[in-house]
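>> Question from a student workshop board

For tomorrow's exercise we were told to take the sequence and the ligand below, predict the bound structure, and bring the output to class. My setup keeps failing. Could a helper post the expected result so I can at least see what it should look like? The ligand is inosinic acid.
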Amino acid sequence: MQIYDLEEIISQEEINKKILFLSEQINNFFRDSSFIAIGVLKGAFFFMAELLPHLKNCETFDFIQAKSYEGNKTTGKIRILKEPSVLLKNKNVLVIEDILDTGITATGIKEYLLQRDVKNVYFCTLLDKPSRRVRQIRPDFYGFEIGNYFVVGYGLDYEEKFRDKRGIYILKFKS
Ligand code: IMP
Ligand code: MG
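>> Workshop helper replied:
Here is what the output should look like for this input. Compare the format with yours to find the bug.
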């Protein structure tokens, strides 16, 4: 049986504050234009639910599901498991992500959305791990920059576990 240690690095209170900060930035950016929020399932579920009520010019929201991970290793490509059903043509789209890691998922989602003739694609991610990037992509809005750790909680999982924890934790494996 695998044993883990969880070390909290970001508390729910810090996330709440950051959500207010991010919503100000986003509202300022979309002062004169509207957008559609697309949450990346399942990881962005909590973040999106708490961010959206603060956003002023969001027309509506939907979800996309794309996968690049099996366990804690990236596979290098993505599969779209769920497509959004709202009309996206000529819309500004704000993609809401839990974490930007290698950038493979975000790049794949961006390509998919551009094929759907959206006007612009923007990214808002709660966490950014820039040291792991293999694609040239940067979030337009991000909450916290973190080092090269595998983290769980607040939507983020390890093999579908720990998503329901209220803060962000580093997952450490004990052998
Ligand atoms: P990327 O394609 O490598 O940028 O990874 C994006 C996706 O991988 C995220 O949406 C997460 O679902 C998953 N992921 C990346 N890093 C972590 C992590 O530290 N913990 C949990 N999931 C992660
Ligand atoms: Mg995810």
